[in-house]
Design goal:
It is built from nine helices and seven strands. The chain is globular and about 55 Å long. It is α+β, with helices and mostly antiparallel strands and 248 residues long. The protein has a four-stranded antiparallel sheet, covered by helices on one side. Strands 5-6-7 form a three-stranded antiparallel sheet, with no helix packed on it.
């Protein structure tokens, strides 16, 4: 079933393990780069102790699109044959309204820090990408707009040193009163080997493009460079977020 709420047109599908997943399709707008951002963003969020639906690799066979009556969706699914990514579907979850749903300062600060670290332009009032589910906990979905440098043509090492001005629009910035503490904890949790393990999850097929002779290992190292340099220089974006909060 197409989920037309998302700009990338994900689909809700039942997999052969009997569970339902929100499937992010490789053939959508930003292609495999959005899937890489979803994978890296989701697993870093999980490492920081935040709630993220289980992420799985999903193989989409040719036959899956044949019975789809919507031509647009059918074409998208045909372009996405092969390996895609899915998020476990959180049945009955509701979108977060920070004015009605309480989010504590530590959680808000961890989420704001995460999105500044990953340069995630979403998580605004227009597109919250947060759900309330299971005992009113906050769950993060849709990290696909993260790692903005992928689309801007900016060198990864230079992009790692940016303050990320879009944090001023973050839905939880007002509640993020513990950003310095969130930064300190992230440094304890995101050891270099942890970052390496997450980056190593990226499938080679998402890193290579037809007609491009750059090997997958080199493209994977771009993500290592960005994440490690950004963490090492986290004071830049953490201080900027603190100042942005003061100006609200």
């Amino acid at each position: 079933m197409p989920m037309r709420e998302g700009g990338s047109l994900p689909v809700l599908a039942e997999a052969d393990d009997g569970f339902k997943y929100v499937v992010k399709l490789r053939g959508a707008g930003h292609g495999a780069k959005a899937l890489i951002a979803e994978l890296i963003g989701g697993e870093i969020a999980r490492a920081l102790g935040l709630n993220v639906p289980e992420l799985v690799f999903l193989d989409l066979p040719h036959e899956f699109a044949i019975t789809e009556p919507d031509f647009e969706v059918q074409e998208l699914m045909k372009k996405s044959e092969g390996l895609n990514i899915g998020l476990h579907f959180l049945s009955s979850a509701l979108a977060i309204d920070p004015y009605d749903n309480p989010v504590d300062a530590a959680t808000a600060s961890a989420i704001v820090w995460l999105d500044a670290f990953l340069t995630n332009v979403d998580r605004t009032a227009r597109n919250t990408n947060m759900l309330q589910w299971y005992n009113s906990e906050v769950w993060l979905i849709d990290q696909g707009a993260s790692l903005y440098f992928q689309h801007s043509g900016t060198d990864a090492a230079k992009a790692a040193l940016t303050p990320f001005p879009y944090i001023k629009d973050h839905l939880l910035l007002r509640k993020a009163t513990m950003l310095a503490e969130a930064d300190a904890r992230a440094h304890r949790v995101l050891a270099p080997e942890k970052i390496d393990a997450i980056v190593d999850l990226i499938p080679d097929s998402w890193l290579v493009t037809e007609g491009d002779d750059v090997p997958a290992v080199e493209r994977r190292d771009v993500y290592r460079t960005f994440l490690k340099a950004r963490l090492e220089n986290s004071k830049i974006f953490t201080d900027h977020a603190i100042e942005a909060r003061k100006s609200l």
